[in-house]
Amino acid sequence: MTSEVSSEDIDLVTNLINEKLRGQFPHVSSNDRCIFRVPKELRRVNEKAYEPRIIAIGPYHHGKEHLIAMVEHKIRYLLRFLQRRNENDVSRYVQIIEGLEERARRCYAEPLHLTKDAFIEMMLLGGCFIVEFIWKLIECEQDPVIGSEHVLGRLMLDLLLLENQLPFFIFSELLVNSNVRGTQNRPAESNFIKIISFYYESFLPGPGYHPDLNNVYTPEEIIEIKNLLGLLRDHWKPSPERMAAYQEEKGNVKRFTRCATELREAEIKLKSVEGFNLFDINFERGIIKIPKIKIADKTECVFRNAIAYEQLTSLKNPYFTDYMIFMDNLIDSA
């Protein structure tokens, strides 16, 4: 004999389960998600490549003991951010970030358990720190954070890590609402993008594609920028000619590159070339021409985070990933 279940009981259970589902899986479009935790299968080879060492930006590493020392500098940078604008009250910027809170939360692929106030404070301190950090670089302002070349290099690398990102619209809103200076022909957001691209140029282990430095980003283009890592990955893209050829090749059946030994046996030569975009690999008259790559301490970290970003966002043109697959196949058993 089975007991009858009332409609009230069913409604109660339904509501309880739905509340739990909403708490764990809030309504988020896959297009909103742009900041991820790196999966274990990617981390296990070199976990340190994804971990910040100096500063936490965003929620994933927020509050970690070895990163707490930078909180004092974030507050100091916020004060300087206000002083540049002859302001002494942060309430206007708190309201701006509060209006962006839900949109910002949707950018993170993992559930976030920070309170509303803690989340807004974290976004504001992180956003103002990066904006002020860029202006300090421009003005060569004396500062403990950027006074050491080693600390500066590591800090800039921390700001590129996939797990250590803020949505780019946080910077856009801070720039627009703080009336930060632009130039006569380039608004503040475009100027900010240009400066970031310039200072991070050396982080790519080889020449990148250099778009017109006078290019002014349209509002539509700025909206498409997801975060700093995404911005710089796009800045380092292949040249337009190479991108067109790349997209055409992607439509064909994927073929794997033979290793160097097999290529030599087939009388195909390898030649390193200078002054070309890193991704401009060409095959001409039996010769594979590969641009020289300059390996530095930060190279692995940059590549691993760019590849993780491509894998997790399912980009149509994962050129960092394909470049590493090509090089891995070439070197394998060479």
From TrEMBL:
InterPro entries: DUF247_pln. This is Uncharacterized protein. It comes from Hevea brasiliensis (Para rubber tree).
